[in-house]
Amino acid sequence: MKEPLAPPPWPASDVRIRRIGVSVTAPDGLPLVIVKVETTEPELFGVGCATFTQRPYPVVEAIEKYLAPFLEGRDPADIEDIYQAASVTSYWRGGPVLNYALAGVDLALWDIKGKLAGMPVYQLLGGRCRQAAPIYGHASGRDAAEVEDNARRFVDDGYRYVRCQVDVPGMSTYGAGERTQRAGQWDPGAYVRAVPRLFAHVRDALGEDIELLHDVHERLAPPDAVRLAKELEPFRLFFLEDPLPPEQLEHFRVLRSQTATPLAMGELITNRAEYLPLIRDRLIDFARMRVTAVGGLSVAWKIGALCDFFGVRTAWQCPGDVSPIGHAATLALDLATPNFGIQETQPFSDAARDVFPNGPTIHDGQLWPSEQPGLGIDFDPAAAEKFPPPAPLTNDAWTWARLRDGSVVKP
Ligand SMILES: [Mg+2]
Asked: Which terminus, N or C, of the chain has the lesser number of Cβ atoms within 10 Å?
């Protein structure tokens, strides 16, 4: 067995990390980066999600060239020490590429620990606070009537929470569907006028019992964000997501003081210097970071506990460019987090379920865990090979919108 490069002074168990491998697969067209940590026990391994859809190959390099040689030979039981040591061995830290790489290994180590314990990971985090995680549906449409129709489909399926996004005619509108997300023009004024009209319609049509959400996707200047949040107050949103880009976090102080609309923020945030003030100063209602983008379960668990102390709820970001392994890990947190708010997820295709058998399932508008030990989800490398990733930049066009004067919009 290889001796690890930087072992701790305490004795290791007989189980060691033998190999750390990485695969890139795209069963639903988006490249997913999957980590497998194999141990010296023949049948004992863990799987993790290191998916950075837009830039998968730098993450693969970070794992294969640096994390794997650094960690092979370590005792996989030392999750926290491995996280601490691996996160500073690059000296520079806190960015998305290295965080995703760390997360892939971290999730796999929690999977291994759960398998060794014979328990689902949520049991290792203190046990259940709820039986399943309520989720929200993504309803979009060309106009308010089409959004209403799509929202009703979720309500009929038992969902109590629906995110509503509508096309702004002629604009490259985030979340409104493929047809308008290609590179194009973006007019924040037209958008800020369109969204309250959408919610006036949807709230009236669906009644008071359905919780409504909306994602701005960071595309507003601070005064527009204030105006939108105030004009949405009569429609009682569950939350307004990412109203400002992460470059403008200080403006949350103004936004917070101006509106009663609940605020969710965080999917582009990767480090403590950014999320800590938002939580500590109670500038948001829902922390919306991605578990894998902040570095994995080990750090996300602490963020969730931090949020609890400051009256902030969790709403971990988890769309289709997180692998089903990432969804399973996020669900483990949801189940064990008292201050859980809501979970984003999506139904995975048959192809994705072939590559990732036995994961969580959706019914009654909630995400339910598999009760298998560890993360409770498998990875089939042979099935994965049938879905090679698309060429780089294939899925990036939705980030290429520009203002009327031709300048770039922060997506
Ligand atoms: Mg979002």
From this structure: N
